Amino acid sequence: MSQTLDTPRTPAPAQAPLDAAALAALHGLSVSNARPSLPQYVRQLWARRHFITAFATAKLTAQYSQAKLGQLWQVMTPLLNAAVYYLIFGLLLGTSRGIDDFVPFLVTGVFVFTFTQSSVMAGTRAVSGNLGLVRALHFPRASLPIALCLQQLQQLLFSMAALAVILFCFGVPPTWSWFLVVPALALQFAFNTGLALVMARLGSKTPDLAQLMPFVMRTWMYASGVMFSIKQVLPEHGVPQFAKVLLECNPAAVYIDLVRYALIDSFDAGQLPYGVGAMWALALGWAVALCVGGFIYFWKAEETYGRG
Amino acid sequence: MADTLIETPTAPELDEIHEVDETDGETRTPTVVADGVDIVYRVTGTGAGRGSATAALNRIIRRKKHAARGMREVHAVRNVSFTAYKGEAIGLIGTNGSGKSTLLRAVAGLLPTENGRIYTNGQPSLLGVNAAMMNDLTGERNVVLGGLAMGMSREQVRERYDDIVEFSGINEKGDFITLPMRTYSSGMAARLRFSIAAAKDHDVLLIDEALATGDRKFQKRSEARIRELRATAGTVFLVSHNNKSIRDTCDRVLWLERGELRMDGPTAEVLQEYEKFTGAGK
C-alpha cells in the first residue's frame, strides 16, 4: 500500500497570522497536563471530597458483595485474624508470659497494626492498580490513596466494634478512657494516609514494591510488639539501648501502646516506654510529619502518574 | 461548515475575545490548540527472554539512564498540529493503531507530550467514566460514583439521576438499575456509561468509540445527545471506525495515519479520501 503523504490541508486559516502559542495566549487557553500549585491542589482535592468518600464506601461494599455471608465478613475477618494469632502466640508459643489480659493485649495490637498494614498495602497499589481510572479521568491523584485509607478506616470501625465485644467477654471493664481511642486512631489515620501517599508514588514507578511490601510489613509487625511486650522482652535478650529506643519510638508501636493504654485497665502508664505526654507527642509528631511530608512528596509527581 | 461557526452577537460569553479571521471574516474561539505534538510511549517488558530478570534489575538500579535495555520507545503521534474551535464536532479517523486514542488522551491532559504543546480551554474530558465504575455495585450506585468521579457535586448527581437512568433505557425492560453491574449485558453497561458521561456539560468532550456499542436506537439517541452537547458547550472530538456515525455527527475530520496527520478538512472530503485509502468504498 502506498504511503505517500498528502500535505496536511490546513482548513484553519487562523494559523497563518498567529503562531499556536500566541493564539492560545490570546484566548486564555492553558497547557493541559500541567501540575497545579500546592494550594490549588488542596482546593481541588477538597472539591472532590464526595468522590473520595463515595469511592471508599464503594470499595468497601464491593469487597464482600459476592460472598454468601456478605458484609458479615467485615467483622468475621478481624476476629478470625485475632483467633489465629491467639492460637499461635498465646497457646503454642506462650509469649503471654508476664502480660495480664493477654487476649485483649494481643487483639488490640493485631487490629491496630492491621490498620497501618492494610493502608500501606492499599497505598502501594493505589496508583498502579487503578491505572485505568488515572488514564481516563481527571481528578487529583491523591484522591486514590486517601480514599483507600478511608476504606481501611471504615474497616477498622468494624474491627473496633468486634474488639469492644472481645474486651467485654474477657472482663475488661469499659471506662471513660476508652474515648482516648478516638484521637489515637485519628492520629494513626493521618500517619497511615501520609505513608500511603509516599508508597503510592513509589509504587507507581516501581510496581514490584507490591510484591516486596508484605515481607517488610511482616517484619515491621514482629518488631512492633504486637504479640509481646517490647518493654519486658528486650532486656532479657540483651538488646542494645539504641535498638530498644528505635523499636519503642516506631510509630506502629506508639499507636498500639496508646490504644492499649486507653482500652485495657491492666495496661497502665507503667507499661508505656515513656510518659503519657511523651507518647502523645510522639504520636502527633509522626502523624504530622508523614501527613504533610507524604502529601507534598506525592503532589510533586502529580503530572507523571499514569504514564507508560 | 461556515454557518455553524459564526458566533451571533448575542452570545452570552461577553468576556471572550474573539479572533477576527481576515480571510472570510468569521469570528471563532479556539478551544484546543495542538502545536507540533509528539507522543512517545516507553514500554517495558518487551525484553525478549534472555536475561530478562537481570535486565529488570539493571533497569531499576539505573533508572535515570536514558533508554535502558529492554525498554522500547513507540512513537505514537508525530508532529501533529491543529486548532479546534468552539461549536465544532471533529471526527478522528485512521486505521487501527494510528494514534487516534493516544492523541485524545493527550488532549485530555492524561498523557504527557514528548515535544510540542497542547493548549486547551478549561479541562477537556474523556468519555471514560467506565473506569470509575465497579461491577459488583448496583447500577444505581455506579451512577452516583461515576458522576462524582467526573467532578459533579452530590446535588448535581441527585438532580440528573433520573435523566441519566431514563436516557440509558436500562429500566425499559424491568428494574435493572438496582442490580449489580456484573449482571448487565455489555450493551446495557455501555449504555449506562455513555449516559453518565453525557450527563455532564463539558467544554471539550472527547469520545473514544463509545458509540460502537448499543443498539441502533440507542446510537441514534447518543448522536442526538452529542449534537446537543456541541450546541450548548463547545467542541466534541469523536473517534470512530463507523464512517456513518462520523458523517452524521461531525463537520470536520482529522485523519491520522501512523501517528501523522494525513488530512484535515470537511467531513465529506476527508472521508472520501479515507474510503479510497482503505478500499472500503461505501
TrEMBL record, chain A:
PROSITE patterns: ABC_TM2. It is found in: Cell inner membrane; Cell membrane. Its main location: membrane. Keywords: Antibiotic resistance, Cell inner membrane, Cell membrane, Membrane, Transmembrane, Transmembrane helix, Transport. The chain crosses the membrane at residues 78-96, 102-123, 144-170, 176-200, 278-299. InterPro entries: ABC2_TM, ABC2_TM_bact-type, ABC_2_transport. Signal peptide: none annotated. Pfam families: ABC2_membrane (PF01061). It is a multi-pass membrane protein. Residues 69-301 form the ABC transmembrane type-2 domain. Belongs to the ABC-2 integral membrane protein family. This is Transport permease protein.
